[in-house]
Design brief:
Layout: H1 2-12, H2 15-35, H3 39-48, H4 57-66, H5 73-77, H6 79-95, H7 99-106, H8 117-128, H9 137-146, H10 148-165, H11 172-188
The structure holds fe (ii) ion (2 copies).
Amino acid sequence: MEEEIKKDAQNMLTPFRYEHCVRTAKKAEELAIRWGYNPKIARIVGLAHDMAKDLKYEQYLQYAKENGISLSKEDELVKVHLHGIIAAKMCEKKYQFTKEMCDAIAYHTTARDNMTLLDKIIYVADKIEEGREYEGIEELRILAMQNLDEAILESIQYSIIKCIKQQKYIHSLSIIARNELLSKRSNKT
Ligand SMILES: [Fe+2]
Ligand SMILES: [Fe+2]
């Protein structure tokens, strides 16, 4: 299955995006080993997570319509979230990914409440893969190996702040995920 996904990803994505997927897969595998998840599944999901990223907005809407995916108004407004939802469906149909694998792809942009371990691994791997560069990423890479929830919280907050600065919509799932992680943290202290 992995070879087929690689081939499809190469066909569907620009070389730049494909390389990002390969690096995300590698990072997901590392995180899986660290946090006790099946490394092969994490790697495969990492490889496939951006499968739909190079499609156009109209193609997302069309695919959703043709495949019975109901998008909320909010999903449509937060355009960047759509590529995950569409890729999850593609992977379910084409490679028979399990629900757990599909969900990790569907929510890799927004995060969500009650994230599974695979959700967390894919969310963070995508943000800290070795090709990414932004202020604080080295600290985030270290944090992801020490405290996965804290790394997700940091990363969600970074994304929310970026959305505000760029006057972009913020998906409510990201706010919910942030609040949940914050409340877990305060329960511990
Ligand atoms: Fe993505
Ligand atoms: Fe990505």
